[in-house]
Amino acid sequence: MSQSVPSPSAVQATFAATLFDEWIRHGLVDVVVCPGSRSTPLVLACAGRSELTIHVRIDERSAGFFALGRALATKRPVAIVVTSGTAAAELHACVAEADQAYVPLLVLTADRPPELHGVGAPQTIDQHELYAGMVRRSEEPGVPVLAAAPTWRTLATRLWRSAVNAPGRSGPVHLNAAFAEPLIGEPFALPAHLDDPLDEWITPRAEIDLRSRRVLCVVGRGVAASVIEDCVAMNWVVLGDATAQGSLAFFDPLLRIDSFAVAARPDVVVRLGGLPASKVLQERLRSWNTRTIGFDGAGFIADPDRLVSESVAGLPERDLAASADPAYLELWCRTSLEVGEWLNGADGVDGALSEPAVAREVVAASARHATALVVGSSMPVRDVEWWSDSRRAPTFSNRGVNGIDGVVSTVLGVAAGSRAIGLIGDVTMLHDVSGLVDGLGEAGGSCVVVVVDNGGGGIFSFLPQSTTLDHEPFERLFGTPRPHDLAAIAAAFGHVGVVVTTRDELRSAIATGLDRSGVSVVVARVPSRAHNVVVHDEWNAEVERIVSGE
What we know:
The chain has helices at residues 8-26, 40-47, 60-74, 86-89, 92-101, 152-164, 225-233, 251-255, 258-263, 279-288, 326-347, 355-368, 379-387, 407-415, 426-431, 435-438, 464-468, 471-479, 486-492, 503-515, 529-548; strands spanning 30-33, 53-56, 78-82, 105-111, 138-139, 172-178, 205-206, 215-219, 237-240, 268-272, 291-295, 310-312, 315-316, 372-375, 395-396, 419-425, 446-453, 496-500, 518-525.
């Protein structure tokens, strides 16, 4: 008796099951799922696998950034499954961030079959290459057919390999999978496994003779703590963005001092990964205009000023026999230490909170509790980079596009199943308040989100808009204060919401939040945005006094 031909629904179910079976073989663990009908074959395929952790979130935009947070924390690709139509469009922002931050995501969008396009069918948009050049690969296999079954594992492997790519070049990939009704079916036996193991990427190390030179190494997004450690061991001065672990602290206020910038002029600048937020650093690099070597082993080298004069494949080779000038490193370390000693003394004077003081406390708490930190854009990322001690725990930030979109969800994604601290602004929280709907979900964990409540967008007070415009249009168009009680909003979503006004209260609230399960929103009330500009000016003036020996 001949074997019966599987139904179209069974073929679709088997197609989806084969994809996830292959991705599990390659190391997939986390899948973020948004409810929807057309994506049913994909959702049922992943939900039926015990090897996978499923995170269900009802808002696709939030879900995308939650997936991005999971990928940052685990350093593995994370899959996200959504239905057709605007659900797929909602992922555009997280795909843009993952693209420029080199975060591997498997973006799986369901679609209507061809016959339902262009005829007014609901939840139907043109999803062909929806994310354009933002993805490493886009695949659109059409409605699954039995004859294509031998290609399904190859399709899954192709997508996975494109997502992980070479080190420092990973990113999102897109599968637009069309399904026809009926959408529920039982999978038949999966196609056989391919004997095609993944390539193991080995990042090359490159030797550059910089012995006895004054080497300044500037690192940003994508540079691992071990790489920074190697660079420091060779007497390189390492200046890093907020995500850098073990880089030299307080470089921004130091470089604002002309005399120090003259004394600290390097012979060679080494560049790895992204750029710090400091415009002062960029100005000094331009004015120094010295030999600049870019190593591509940490990914794309951000170079908007086109200062990189030499490009090298791989990462610096640690060679203590060819160490750089130790006196140059000593200059930076000694001066940074002096600033740190003053800040530590100033921290305990009155216990009052300011925006940079909140950043210092949060970074210290992250180190003290050995807990991952996620830093929001605008002022938080700058205050961490400029005024906090060196980061000792894993630190993340959406430094690809540098937006405030989805930051709450990114923090939750990092914390899920573990714990994390977030440092964000009040506008950033309100922008992604829907992330609080699902919180940490079934994964559990502990998450403390510290919100700097300065009544609006603080970074604009440092920009020309604040001095060019009258107060009313500036506040309406740029400051954008909102009257919402942020602690009450957190409580309305079922989370803990507390307000703090002193350093001691902030330390206690963070420790308490990490000791409990779930999400705690700690609202740090700080002086006005205008006062924050004054605080920065005063701190920078004090650093200049210290360095000048006055």
